[in-house]
Amino acid sequence: MSKAEHTCEKRVFTNHHRGLCGRGARYEHEGRWYCKTHHPPTIEAKNKARLEKWKCKWAAKNKARERDKNINTRRDELEALAIEHKDEFWAPGEDPLRIKLSDIGRQLAELREGE
Questions:
Q1: Which of the chain's ends, N or C, has fewer CB atoms near its CB within 10 Å?
Q2: Does residue 27 lie in a domain region?
Q3: Overall domain count for the chain
Q4: Has residue 86 been placed in a domain?
């Protein structure tokens, strides 16, 4: 038999009936003939590609989630520190605490702009 004389042997469920695919089969796998859609190595390759695509997407989402978590934690720490030292924040002079609190205020402003 030539390739054109084979039909796909995959069992499918269509129109509320179960039967064979019936399309022309070009690919043989483990003694059975399949069309391109139902060829097991093709299906496996498509599933692997789909899974890799989703893994990349999930990794990016997890990285963004972790970044947001770190930003929120840092923002909470900075806000608590600013509230704790609000009296020193506006004190006149160039003491180290005022400079540090000024940096904290700048960082808070940057975090708020990033939202």
A1: N
A2: no
A3: 1
A4: yes
